Amino acid sequence: MRSSSLRVRLLLYLSISMVIVVLSLGFILANSIYLQNVGYLRFQEEHYFQEVQTHLAEVQGPLEKYLTDRSSSALTRLLFLLETIREKIPPVRPIRSDATYLMKREVYFLIDAYLAQVNQIIELKRGRKVIEYIDSYNELSRLYTHISSEIDQVSLRGFRVQLEEYRSFLELFRRIQYQNLLLVIVATAFAYSLLMQMVNSITRPMLQLSQLAAQLSDGKFDLPDLHFASINEVERVAEAFNHMKRSIYHYIEELQKQKEMEQQVMTERVRNLRMEQLLKRMELYTMQAQMNPHFLFNTLNTGVQLAIVENAERTAEFMEKLAALFRYNIRGKRLFVPVRHELEGLKLYYAILQVRFPKTLRLVLDIDESRLDGVDCPAMILQPLVENSVLHAFKHTEGIGTITVLVKLEEPVLTLSVRDDGIGMAPALVGDLLSRHAHDHQPGPKVMGLENVIQRCYFFYPGQEDVIDIRTESGKGTEVIIRINTRVEPCIEL
């Protein structure tokens, strides 16, 4: 009990206050509901006579239409209204001394006469007794006017009676409201005094704790221990504060030691990061230095054959383009180049391919060069993809092989695509190519250029999951798609 005294006190004080308030509000609500029910019953009687009067008024329209047109729909509507009025009129009407009730009883008999008169008019209409039903209709109109006047008198008398009753009810309700308001004020004041005692028993010790904590934050650790003879929870807080004060000094010493150790660790970590950056640069240069020697050997062999069988002018042109391509591939060892420079190198490469494959290879460039100014891409990224298609896509095929290169910029994404209509790739090979490799991975000899491009894309943009994709279908070709977010800086310093 003592260990939870704060909670118990709060619950007890709040419960007492809430019970008093709820009882007072419940009493007010009960009286309000009672008065509402009385008023509802009174107005329900008045509403009843208003409905009867409305139905009587509705009878006039169908009756006139039936008398003039002999309409069957009007007769049906008329009979329905008559039956509705009969159901609303009480069949038993005992005699009482209440004047208001006697007026209502008289209205009931008048309505009975009205309904009987309507039935008589219907029978006269069916018997085609024109003069009789016209006289009856005129008498019915006078009876309707009299009934309406009587209903108004009943409503007026009922309203006056209700007005007197409501005055008594309102006076009673007003007295009850004053009493309950006084009860709520007393209950609220009582609860407020209890809560203030509880708050003071908590805030006074906490104020002293905050003052000592401020001195402790200034570096004063020789403060006396705190002891409070109040609520148990506050005493536990004081004990925890005393323990904290004694432990802070030891913690400061430990923090100093940890700070020195962390400084050493950070120094070692910086050294390791520099080593890792150096390894990454070495890996990048290694990937860029990889070239497929088959293309170089085949190209030189073609140049020799041309020198033998053709004139020296064509051989000179071929060798000039070959030299220009070699110069482009090895210039500056830049990691990134403008997209226009990459396209120039690709065009030189294709010019040489046309000599080797004049009738079996076609290159289609789908490029919007007007939007490529100021846009960079990794160096040597398109030529290896075209070379991979030339070497592997058209094996065991006949006819002209088509390679389509697409370059487009849709801010902020630069899309580079190389698509061929060759034999396609095996799904297992595609999965192996798209996997991220470790530093010591050795690329396969058949797709070394493509694998080099994929791993360089992963290296430059490690946070972009869709930087490269391969779409292939057996017998229909392969498409390699590279997406570069031009707003994202590559992971290495250019």
Textual characterization of the structure:
With 494 residues, the chain is of the alpha+beta class. It folds into 3 domains: 5-195, de novo design (two linked rop proteins), CATH 1.20.1440.210; 224-274; 290-485, Heat Shock Protein 90 (2-Layer Sandwich). Helix content is 69%, strand content 9%. The protein is built from 11 helices and 7 strands. It has a 5-stranded mixed β-sheet with strand order 2-4-5-7-6. It has a two-stranded antiparallel sheet with strand order 1-3. Strand 4 and strand 5 (413-420) form a beta hairpin. Helix 1 crosses helix 2. The mean pLDDT is 76.
What would the keywords be for this entry?
single chain; 11 helices; five-stranded mixed β-sheet; 7 strands; two-stranded antiparallel sheet; Heat Shock Protein 90; 494 residues; de novo design (two linked rop proteins); alpha+beta
